[in-house]
Amino acid sequence: MRQEDSPEAEKSLLKNPLFREIPREKLEEIIRSVSEELVPGGTFVFRQGDPGDKFYVIASGRIRVFRKDRQGVEIDLSVLGPGESFGELALISGEKRSAHVEALEETRLIVFPKKLFLQILNEYPDISLAFMKQISTWVVDDVKIVEREVRKQYDRPRLAWFDIVLILGLSVLFGLIFNHSNPNGIPLVPKMPSDVAFLRMDPLSVLEAGERGNMIVVDAMPVNFYEKKHIRGAINIPPALFDIVYMMTLAEEDKEKKIAVYGRTISRPYDLEVADKLVNRGHRNVGLLEGGLAEWEKRGYPTGP
């Protein structure tokens, strides 16, 4: 059922923090473009493996989100109620639905078609960032839930150190044999791009170019590091979420525009990973920020929490 100017639909959307910052006139336009769906209790909204073509906000009722493994064992992920939303991951990633969603009782849903959902993300970067933070939190939580369920269902025997060494040794041996016999062998240690492949960008030139609008600064750190401190105005694109965040932030940018990447730590060169991915996407002026965030902060240049 197509919505007109429904105060109930507006009330439902305003329960969701993602829509509270949208101007009133734009929210009314969105409401006219969405539809409403009434799902009886015990009915699936969609199933794991279905194509993703809609985003949902719950107006009333409750839904259960769960997965099934190959043995058919169900793993509960969450129960959502009025004002909460679901279905965005498949729309953003372009992949199929990653879980089942079932109505626990009669549930009224506000339904966003894919085109409208992506349009909202493009027009409101703050909403895009909020989704990224939400998705990254869900991914971590889902992994923990799956690991906990696996431990419940399987009593894994403890391996002696000799068994572990033997398994590792055989794995390396088989890998060497495979690579020797196969010209397209798989490297045992993944190769990282070289520092030499990228320009070194001086912080002052990056600051000045950024103020003129001629430079994009990319923070390659994980979201939790970015939230603690980052260069003001930097776009956060962690390697693990690169494809999703890139599509919503840089996909339409001029490939000739300069991009300065930072985010190296003692344990991992996040900046190299992201810079390499940007080059593979066709960007031709990608460089590494000289000295990273530490040098930027040392010079007193602006940062954000």
Mean pLDDT metric: 81
How many separate domains? 2
Termini separation comes to: 43 Å
State the helix count.
Answer: 11
Remind me, CATH topology of the largest domain? Jelly Rolls
What is the number of beta strands? 15
Largest sheet: 5 strands, parallel
Residue runs with pLDDT of under 50 for 5 or more positions:
none
Helical coverage, percent range: 40-55%
Order of strands across the widest beta sheet?
A: 9-14-13-10-12
Any guess at the CATH architecture of the largest domain?
A: Sandwich
* Helix-strand string: HHEEEEEEHEEHHHEHEHEEHEHEHE
What class would the helix/strand composition place it in? alpha/beta
Q: Work out the strand percent.
A: 15-25%
What kind of assembly state do the chains in view correspond to?
Answer: single chain
